[in-house]
Amino acid sequence: MSRLTTFLALGIGILLVAAVAALATGTIAFLWNPEALAIVFGGSILATVESSSPQQVLTALRWTGAIVKPRADELVLAEWWLQLALRWRHEGISGLKVAASSAPSDTVAAIAELCADGLDAASIVALAEELVQTRHRSIEQAIAFYRRLAGYAPTMGIIGTVIGLAAALGSTAADPAHLLQRIGFAFSATLWGLVTANFLWLPLAQRLQVALDDERALDRLHIQAARYAAEGITPLLMRYRLAMLLPQERRNQLLRQ
Rounded to an integer, what distance in angstroms lies between the CA atom of residue 208 and that of residue 186? Predict the structure, then answer.
């Protein structure tokens, strides 16, 4: 499933809230409240930035793109490692270096470089695991950032509601109809806080969690492939072992090739 479904679901969620509001009140005009949107979005972002280090903020922004980035094809990656192992087997380090130059990602290139350095299989695995864990911690920081946003949003909505109620009740000269309208606008801040927390920030955090889970599965494939290549096992045995790391459909495709 494409990660673009995150944004599609966000749009549908907002439309659902608007539809329920229209059915309940006969209008959705109270949803358009710039003051409420400013306090919910601005306050949530400022509070989250204040509780995060500059590095965590930059990390969260950097990994946001992973939400819409297509998932890498495990079959293509497994085939790439099989070709690298074959060239290493027949051409030595020179063939390995040529194959590594066409690595499908920076992580794969870094792990292939460890192989080209002439390290033993155990050392390659240890260093590769350290390398990918650093990336995983970076994604975890981005997930924590968006979860903090989700935590602050409802609170900012309540703050906006309190401000709106105070302003409405302080307008003693306002007629009752206008007063009720302003109270309705005040409560829209709470609504936007809940909507953004549950339809925006938490889904973004969860999509990053899915990206992290995908990353871990792919990194496990890379590390085991580098290990098998360094151990010099036969291409047929390496193909079988890599196939065991793939989902069932991809596993069958790799074994048939």
Answer: 33
Where exactly are the structural domains of the chain?
A: 5-74+124-256
- The pLDDT, as a whole number, for residue 1 is 47
Average pLDDT value for the chain:
88
Distances 5 to 60, 74, 101, 102, 235 between C-alpha atoms, Å: 20, 21, 34, 31, 39
Mean pLDDT of the region 153-176: 83
Rounded Cα–Cα distance for residues 183 and 44 (Å): 22
Tokens matching residue 47:
């509070």
So what's the pLDDT on residue 246? Answer: 93
Q: Are 168 and 182 in contact (CB under 8 A)?
A: yes
pTM: 0.85
Tokens of 107: 């992580």
Residue 141 pLDDT: 94
- Identify the band that residue 172 occupies on the pLDDT scale cut at 50, 70 and 90: low
Residue range 134-152: average pLDDT?
95
Report angle CA 77, 115, 243 to the nearest 5 degrees.
30
